[in-house]
Amino acid sequence: MIPFASLAVVVAAAAAPLQLETRILAERPGAAGTAPVLAPARRMLPGDPLVVELAYRNTGGAAITGLVLANPIPQGLAYRGGQPDMPVPDLSVDGSRFGPLAVLTVALPGGGTRPATAADVTHVRWRLPAALAAGGSGRLAFRAVVR
Amino acid sequence: MRDRNVGGESKAWRRLPTVLAFWLAAGGALPAAAQTRPGTVVTNTAAVAFTLDGEDRRVDSNSVTLTVAERLDIVLAPGGTTPMLTPPYIALGLVLTNGGTGSEAFVVSATPTVAGVTVTGIAIDVDGDGYFDPAVDTLLAGATPPVAPGEALRLLVLVSPVPDAEPTGGAVAVTARAATAAGTPADAIAGAGDDGSEAVIGTTGATAAITLPFAAPTPPASVLASAPTLAKTQSVRAPDGSARPVAGAVVTYTLVASFPDATEGARIDDPIPAGTRYVPGSLTLDDAVLTDAVGDDAGELAGAGIAVTLGDVPAAAVRTVRFQVRLP
């Protein structure tokens, strides 16, 4: 379940004024002498590092405000961290409370809590404060690893 | 059979033990048994909420799906002992570990590196005792049974000396590989992994080799019993009459040499322990005092130790040498 604060109207992605596309990327060696490039992952093995990317675009005619993008960490992947040069997302270990990893805790089976680790993260979320103008777009991403 | 109860399974994997969670967060490699099962489907779907024309709306992204592949890896380790080669056969132990992420059978072969021995079979050491018990341990007829990821299989390589061959020490070269595929790391075979997943050869090449040594048999007991032996004991007397090894105490060493057979040119040497001082004139042979000087009798203080020349001794001879040192 994607945790949004309010009950929202879910619109078919194709007809919506905001398009959202996600990809799972992996590093591929670049041509000789160049840096590695990110390309859609073709294979996943435990321990492989990946990048989950979200790309959004305002395809309508009016500005869009209050953008909140959320990505539940899929079964089989573990959150690793933010992507360089991109905003770091807020994290959650229960789907309802979001914040930096340092403030999150996990309940212990015998009672009490322990600090959360990256492997405990269940959801990531970005709040975009600025309005997205018509035709505007953006890209967000986070690093993950195959469990 | 893959567990399709996605809801229950997703709750279970989120309760990773703290140790595993820390490893993952620190970027460390996971133990094989905790790695995602091959065939597991990973699906990522994102969503965005926004406000347009005063209305709260939400849009889902596409879903991108990938299936986790199986890694093939293997580790071989010796069983820990070096048995002596004795008829009718000996068992050389080794441990085969499935270092991959899926269930896998392994093909094992063994070849002696010396002549005079043959490999008569490879067995699973079911009771793990390092010995081959035909009633309990099972001989392999081909590949091993499937081994779970991260699990180890104890094996025994059975080696027999060839009749009439001179028994020598040597070794057996063992190689093992994953039954599904082995060879160049990162090579992959679509559909060959568990649950129809892709099988990918890991960094070990899904192949391992190890050499298991065995020792030549020692001479029979009758041969050993006729070798000379030397036994050394000590006693301590402190200035106050006690046996405490304090400064000024005198240590008396007693060396007893036994010769079961007649022996020529026998000689006893013993260094003066570092930090102690030889007590002059304390060297005796069978309680007769020997001089410390060189050349005038059987005993001498030579260099950093005492030396007593016994010469030719008859069978069943016993000679006792004593000397003393003082603790500083």
Commentary on this structure:
- The complex is a heterodimer of chains A (about 150) and B (about 325).
- Chain A is mainly beta and about 150 residues long.
- Helices cover about 0% and strands about 45% of the residues of chain A.
- Chain A has no helices and eleven strands.
- Chain A is flat and about 55 Å long.
- Chain A starts with 8 loop residues before the first strand and ends with a strand.
- The mean pLDDT of chain A is about 90.
- Chain B folds into three domains: about 5-45 and about 55-70, no CATH class; about 70-215, Immunoglobulins (Immunoglobulin-like); about 225-325, Immunoglobulin-like (Sandwich).
- In chain B, about 5% of the residues lie in helices and about 45% in strands.
- In chain B, strands 14, 15, 17, 18, 19 and 22 form a six-stranded antiparallel sheet that branches.
- Chain B starts with 5 loop residues before the first helix and ends with a strand.
- At the A-B interface, β1, β2, β4, β5 and β6 of A face α1, α2, β1 and β2 of B.
The tally of strands of chain B reads 22
Shape category of chain A: flat
Distance between the termini of chain A: 21 Å
CATH topology of the largest domain in chain B: Immunoglobulin-like
